[in-house]
UniProtKB/TrEMBL annotation:
Reactions catalysed: allantoate + H2O = (S)-ureidoglycolate + urea
HAMAP family linked: Allantoicase
Signal sequence extent: none
Protein name as catalogued: Probable allantoicase
Keywords of this entry: Hydrolase, Purine metabolism
The EC number(s) this enzyme carries: 3.5.3.4
Domain Allantoicase residues, every copy: 16-164, 186-328
InterPro entries in the cross-refs: Allantoicase (IPR005164), Allantoicase_dom (IPR015908), Galactose-bd-like_sf (IPR008979)
Gene name per UniProt: alc
Length: 333
């Protein structure tokens, strides 16, 4: 079983998520819900409206309940949510519920108001100063959420974990190049040997890394072996170009790397890490330098269609981003 928090945060600001509207944000702005990183506490900081809080907080006793409308950064199927009330101890909501809708394009607030909404989390009790985890059992592809809190109060962060389901028809129609590893396209870093300093999903986030902690980084290896990360591609395809960068890893970049691919639809981590897993070389052993962006095309070996990719780093260290550009397999189209 996969812990839903291992899946992508579909509402992440890094993927384009945004809080479009809220009925009230008197004490703390609605945008705080999706801020990256954990909430913080500032002991003696106040604003003209009251105590400074890191999150979204509404005024008291003004209505039956409050709500916030969220556009996901990428559409997908939600497998679980975290309603984080960190530092809201005497001012957290008693309950919450969540509705979801699938509205393509860029709908107006009026269009969203009249959309077909499905409740994916019934009214559920919350605890203060806690990460309230709720699994979600819905197979609906969604683009927008409505978070309801009862009757009022503050929520520090909302995380919406699930499986990315992009509009693949736009790639299939064009028949052109696509980053098969990208999280926003449906790629997913399934597993890695270690991620002591930086999460493996950072490898496939959009854009350049912002600082050293915004990549995938392992602890220092004190023995034989090497570190690795396995990515389930967004769809089966043939990779012909690779971009890899070690931005901000100046004293801790890997010495060398290789890339491999496998064509095993639906494979588990156990199958992919077995000694006889059918990995094929994609990029031969290549020297890496600190704080450098690489583009490999002539160096990429013909490996045929693949569903998974594996980056091996020797012996350890950090990689900021990995892009695997290719064309969709006929079956994916």
């Amino acid at each position: 079983m996969i812990d839903f928090e291992d899946l992508a945060d579909l509402a992440s600001e890094r993927l384009g998520g945004a809080v479009l509207a809220a009925n009230d944000e008197f004490f703390a702005p609605k945008e705080g819900l999706l801020k990256p990183g954990p909430a913080e506490w500032r002991q003696d900081e106040y604003t003209e409206r009251g105590k400074w809080m890191d999150g979204w907080e509404t005024r008291r006793h003004s209505r039956d309940h409050d709500w916030a409308l969220i556009r996901l950064g990428v559409p997908g199927i939600v497998r679980g949510v975290v309603v984080d009330t960190s530092f809201f101890r005497g001012n957290y909501p008693e309950h919450c519920s969540i509705e979801a809708a699938n509205v393509p394009g860029t709908p107006s607030l009026e269009q969203l108001e009249t959309a077909s909404w499905e409740e994916i989390l019934p009214k559920s009790a919350l605890e203060g100063d806690s990460r309230n985890r709720f699994p979600v059992y819905s197979e609906q592809r969604i683009t927008h959420l409505r978070l309801h809190i009862y009757p009022d109060g503050g929520v520090a962060r909302l995380r919406v974990h699930g499986e990315v389901v992009p509009a693949w028809t736009r790639f299939a129609r064009g028949g052109g190049e696509v980053d098969l590893a990208a999280l926003e396209n449906g790629g997913w870093a399934m597993a890695c040997s270690n991620m002591f300093y930086g999460d493996r999903q950072n490898l496939i986030l959009p854009g350049r890394s912002l600082f050293m902690g915004d990549g995938w980084e392992t602890r220092r290896r004190r023995g034989p072996g090497y570190d690795w990360s396995i990515i389930r591609l967004a769809a089966a395809g043939a990779i012909h170009r690779v971009e890899l960068d070690t931005d901000y890893f100046k004293g801790n970049a890997p010495d060398r790397c290789t890339l491999e691919v496998a064509n095993l639809p639906g494979a588990t981590v156990r199958q992919l890490t077995a000694a006889d897993a059918p990995w094929k070389p994609l990029l031969p052993e290549t020297r890496l330098h600190p704080h450098t962006r690489y583009r490999f095309e002539d160096e990429v070996l013909p490996a045929g269609e693949a569903t998974h990719a594996r980056i091996n780093i020797f012996p350890d260290g950090g990689v900021a981003r990995l892009r695997l550009f290719g064309t969709l397999a006929e079956s994916a189209r």
